[in-house]
Every structure is written in C-alpha cells, then in structure tokens.
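Sanity check

After download, print the first record. It should look like this:
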Amino acid sequence: MLVLVSLGLITVYFRESSEGPLHAAQRIGVSVLMPFEVAGERVARPFRDGWAYLSDLFDAKSENDELQAEVEELRERLIAEQIAARENERLREALEYIGGPSFPADFEAITARVVARPPTPYQQEVVIAAGTDAGVRKDAPVVTHDGLVGLVTDVTPNSANVTLLTDQQSAVSAVVLESNATGTLRQGTSASTLILDRVGKDQLVKEGNLIVTAGWRSEKLESLYPPGIPIGTVKSVGQQDVDLFKRIQVAPLVDFDSLAEVIVLREKPEARRARTRGTKPGQTTRP
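Expected structure tokens:
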C-alpha cells in the first residue's frame, strides 16, 4: 500500500503545475524544516570539526613516527658509509693505491655545439664544433647533463667526431648501481635501444635500476670511461633456462635524437699527475 501511494503521489507531483497542492506542500515542509536543519548543522559542526582534527592529528603522529624511523635508518647508513669511506682511504694510503680519474671532480668540461647528426641509422656519429684548439682529445668521454653520450673517436683543430653509445661498434663496461651487477652495455636490436649483456643469471637486477659506467683499471689496461657516469635505467629483465646471461633492456637517459650540445670531459692536469705516479711505461687504455 505504501509503495502504491508513493507511486501515485510521484505521478501526480510530476503531472501537476508548479502551483499545484503537492508543490505547495513541499515548499511549506521545506520552510518548516529549514530552521531545524540549520540548527542541526550548527550543533554537529563542532563535533565534525573535532573528529577531523583528531583524525588529522593521529595521521600526523603516524607519519611523524614513520619519518623518524626513516631518519634513524638514514643516520645509521650515513655513519656506516662514513666509517667505510675512512677505512677505504686508510687502506688506499697504506697500499699506495693509484686509482682512475673520479667523475666529475677530476675533469674539466668543454661544452660544444652539435653541428652534424648521424648520417644513417647504422652510423651513429655526430660532429661537434670543438677540436684540439679547444682542448678536445681523442678517446675523451662525452656526456650531457643527463648522462653518457659516447666517445671522441676523431678530432681536428676545430671539430671532432663523437661515436654515440647507440653505435653498433660502441661497448661500455657498466654496473647496476643498486646491486653491483656488472656487464657490457651495447646497441640493442635497433639503433635506439641499448642492452646490458653478460650479466649472470644469479645477479639481482630489477626494472628501474640505474646503470652507470663501471670504470676499471688493471696493471696495463684502463677504462676510457671514469666510473659513475649515469647511462640509463633498466627497462625490462628477462631470462630463460637455456640462457647463460640475463636479457636486460636499458632505456638511455640521453635523448640521442635531440642532441643540441654536449660536454667533452678533459682530465685535469693535477689529477693526471697524481694518477700516473708510479705508472709503468708502455701502459695502454681500452674502453
């Protein structure tokens, strides 16, 4: 009966004009109930505001506890890293260790404009408007503010050729910063892709990990790239049971299609002198 009455009232309400009896009754009901609604709103507002305040206070306290725990963890990690750094420095002095150049502290920047882009997808090389007159040397690393670009492979007094990382002849010793997994970075299936090759299946590599230059030095050989230059991030990681190594795709940090200017790294003379103390004659370098 209630449902039928409600349907009947709704039907009459929509069919009558705005001056009909049901519309008039609605306006009267609204006028009568309005003061009670306003009073209820005013009475409930302090309780609602108080609950919101307490809720925000509890959330802030919880967030503060999380931040405090994070600060403590970071403080402990900083202390451990400072102790490790001092121990490392002490061992270096005790062993009279001679390391490679440190990026970027041991390098000067030579900024140059790109005047010619790769002629073909198979020849990934650019020409820059700086040469030996500006201090550019062959085998000098080339970067941007985003990361590694490539290597100077030919130089004239006023220009230089830079072979990009995306060239099929390029290869860079690289390391995954988060897990210290090492491998060789080279061109992928196309000129715009990079892969990190020869990373063992037991090494931990995750999507989003940062890839940087490894930099190494042995008794007679030395990497042309100093350690720590950002290269890219891990885009995907795959492996199969029959594979010896992981299949790692890397997204480069540098946009090679829009290179307008680059930075050629030149080792500082004082850093070179300190590094070559005790170097044996006949030492050579390799990428």
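If your output differs, re-run the checksum step. Summary of this record's structure: The two ends are 90 Å apart (CA to CA).
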